[in-house]
Protein 1
Amino acid sequence: MQGTKKESFLTILVPILAAVLGLVAGAMVMLIGGYDPFTGYSALLDGMIGSPKAIGETIRAMTPLILAGIAVAFAFKAGLFNIGVEGQLLVGWMASVWVGYAMDLPKFIHLPVAIIVAALAGAVWGWIPGFLKARYKVHEVIVTIMMNYIALNGTSWVIKSFLYAGNEKSFDIKATASLASPFLSLITGNSRLHYGIIIAIIAAIIMWFFLNKTTRGYEIRAVGFNQNASEYAGMNVKKNIMLAMAISGAFAGLAGAMEGLGTFQNMSSLSAFTGTGFDGIAVALLGAGHPIGIILAAALFGGLNTAAPAMNFVADVPAELVKIVIAFIIFFVAASYLIRLFLGRFVKEGK
């Protein structure tokens, strides 16, 4: 029991320490580059939470990151590394915009349908590498990386062929499919905050409940721990692999819907990845795969990304340094074994 308490304490402490070390390392880079880290971080903090609009934009940016982080973490639980969250996000984004533009329905039907279709599109895109993994032992990392590029170019082609409104963008969705909230925007200084944050939090709760309170969730976690033992115990390993990747893809598709139905109300014909799906990997790692940790990590990464321009304008510190800080945080999370080894010498049994 004491060992369990110690492990839980370290699980919470390690990501926090990794974030702190990342910020310290970023400050050292600023000093080497001739910038004032105190001024830079002050401007960064102000850009994150210094005004109602900054807070609204931080919450808006963290919304798809929560869902992307959940998508990565869910696959982790099954022992799978879903690098394809970016592609699943893109197909979910496109599906939500298509439904949002092409259908003419009452809002109480139109919005849920657009969200559900986005989740289904992401689920199908996630199921494909899951099927290939389960049926033919094809490594999911290779397949998901390839499918990211298929999604990027495929969605661009669909937009230009069927939804093109000019200026490299699709038609805007109808108001009946929108997550936009004039009320939330008003109280946050006309930010782009929308109702998607509620969906993201609900998704985090669903993830926790499914994995920890259902039989199927237990099987998925068991497969993640040991496939051979799970199969010996009578569990259908192949089915659980495909299901885990499909559910992971569904969460990623929802992340895309948050962008299409919430932030942008359309979809651009992209020539490069958004980065949200890849940031989801860092969010899942920093959040230790736990829903609460993922929400907090998404808040940090969302705030860092939205406040980077403020650091540049106010403190004259290049916005690219935020990416360096994020990279350092990921590095220290990846080096968590060394951090645990170091902390283990100072954490006594029973504390």
Note: The first strand starts at residue 164 and ends at 166.
Protein 2
Amino acid sequence: MLLESLRREVLEANLELVRRGLVLYTFGNASGVDRDKGLVVIKPSGVPYEKLKAEDLVVTDLSGKIVEGKFRPSSDLPTHVELYRNFSGIGGVTHTHSEFATAWAQAGRPIPCLGTTHADYFHGPVPVTSDLTSQEVAADYEKNTGVAICRTFEKLDPADIPGVLVRGHGPFCWGETATIAAHNSVILEALARMAYYTAGLVHELKPLSSSLHDKHYSRKHGSAAYYGQPPDKT
């Protein structure tokens, strides 16, 4: 069986989405990529999470061609592949229809950075894609969803903003690994929920100051990060 270690990680990432209440029934998916081999491991389409096993996961190449697996891959595979092909630094992708993040996506509103919790993880608002054209929906819909995400990040760094809201659809997140991508999905839903509640408490949303936003992000990311313990202490 190909990529056993990656299969186990991707399975755990999928199950983490369930444990955290981010998916219902067979909604959502997680994947991981082995860059050296050029292979993607992804959840099969429509298979219930409670029955999902590592051997059920589907292996494809970066064009979406099935290399190993008895099931059809997630219908969102072309979106994942598009992200892997354009965001060279990522190793995992997750997609959910989590309640609060999806509400912002359906409203077509980016999630503003209103506090330091957001700033710890996203160096800027969580963006929302533009609507797909009718032609993009009719032909290669899932691939064009990925194209729309990449278009949104033409002037943004996916390492600094590890997630997006697809207009009218829901959130996609990514990270260096499938584990980190799932973690970012959990964080994004928490940020979406807090921003939603904040929007109900004030008439006008005021973003966090750029100085405080930058400070909190840099505490956890980059060469000057000092949050947590150094690698030799963990």
Note: The longest strand covers residues 29-34.
Protein 3
Amino acid sequence: MAAPLPEWPYPFWIAHRGAGKLAPENTLAAFRVGASHGWRAFECDVKLSADGVPFLLHDDTLDRTTSGTGRAADLPWTALSCLDAGGWHSRAFAGEPPASLAAVAAWLRRNGHGLDLEIKPTPGDERRTGEVVAAEVLRLWAGDARPPLLSSFRPEALEGARRTAPLLRRALLVDTDWPGWLDVALALGCVAAITHHRLMDAALVARLHQAGLRALVYTVNDPARATELQAAGVDGIITDAVDVFVPDGTGGRRPA
């Protein structure tokens, strides 16, 4: 007998890193641009500063997406918050600061938007990052009926999150079909698996649903592929193409 699927309060369509590539990723500007295109659920990456403040950044280093250099984990939040996290993208966003998780939470809650929060720990700090992020989510979304989904490629981070906040929903991110990943997701008490879209098909959707897990995919930018995955029965699609898809449940393309 198949396990019952968990309650799922999140929208089907999720904007990757705020607004895909239309604005500097993982900034409040990106969330605002995504929302201006009608998106109501977002994905972003979170890690810790040297003094343990959760903030948004994908890479371990600052060089690609900020005016800083070196490891983000070596600087306190007071220094990180003064960097330019928008100028690398375009002149229009020059001076956009990095976003703290606290600032993102305030904006999301005020606007009623959902969040897939990817825990992106600095290597060697996986468990503690999961613990700190989960504790902050409990504080920042206190009383909210739809706190973020906590996702990560790192099982240790999810284990830290589970120990700190067992009732928060968790999802294992999977980029390759490594042996035993489904068993790991179940052992961690995950409610979903989020795989690279190339791994997902109707058979894997059925396998995940049979195990009682929701099936989500990243990062789908091609309309034909999105249609295939919807037909396969996935429970959510993460995309950069916020200006292509209409996130109204139909997944149709915007008029040219």
Note: The chain has a mean pLDDT of 96.
Protein 4
Amino acid sequence: MPKPLIAVPLGDPAGIGPEITVKALADKALREEARVLVIGDLRVIEQAIGFTGVALTPLVVKEGEEVPDDPTVIPVLDLGNIGPDDYKLGEVSAAAGQAAFEFIKKSIELANAGKVDAVATTPINKESLNAAKVPFIGHTEIFGELTGTADPLTMFEVRSLRIFFLTRHVSLREACDLVTKERVKDYVHRIFEAMKQLGVDDGVMAVAGLNPHSGEHGLFGWEEVNEVTPAIEELQKEGYNVVGPIGADSVFHQALTGRYVCVLSLYHDQGHIAAKTLDFERTISVTCGMPILRTSVDHGTALDIAGKNIASAVSMIEAIRLAAHYAPHFVESKR
């Protein structure tokens, strides 16, 4: 079976995306697991090779051509849309934001057409996107729009821990208001479908509690009593292997040790803290519930260190590796 082909859009050229991309592709073990097609600008890659000193040669591959399985080269689909004279490393700019969006858009087009098996994204900068008047706040929104997915699911994976999120970028006050029986049921339904796409179709899912000790039957809040527990009881009657609410101070550890196959976190920081405290660099974001598979590093553009050859490629390596791991299952689920 051929190695999965993973598209890697370069991200914001002024950030660390190009650096961690070329460093990741210098990892011989990774190249044994996946073929990679970088979506970007040849000049940006050459700049990154120049200041990192990686012993790789960029190789321009035209759309539709076979991507070589050669660990000594960086296959690149050259969009020719930005060069080092158009931006300054470490600075926000409209040019960098527009280029980053175009890199992502092309990678999604390739995935939608089945020309790549998955996409592993590098960081983009929200300020640069805004300066370019790109009408999206981040990757998830771009992928949702360009794949026709109204509400993509976000999953974090680190070691054996998988975490889904009921809410994402909203205030804590709004997140609490979004913890409803209907929303919990909808997300659990879709999470089980997403897990099947990833080839994980066995095991118990846990729903984290919102309040301390899951509210202690109303002593510390009524969300569990009125919304979460009724949702789980109805889901169990429907045949879903889901339990909870389980106190957030223990549920993530229990999942890590194998009791649960995944956890539904009820708000952004609840799950982020659990994953990133465990292993910040190896926490990988997987966007599920779409017709294509996308993984991503879970860090920013780090403009303060861009171009200094000190950015770690560990997260990028893990993102590509996880995409390659899940891609065969995902492709098979669509047949």
Note: The chain has two domains: 5-150+287-333, 160-274.
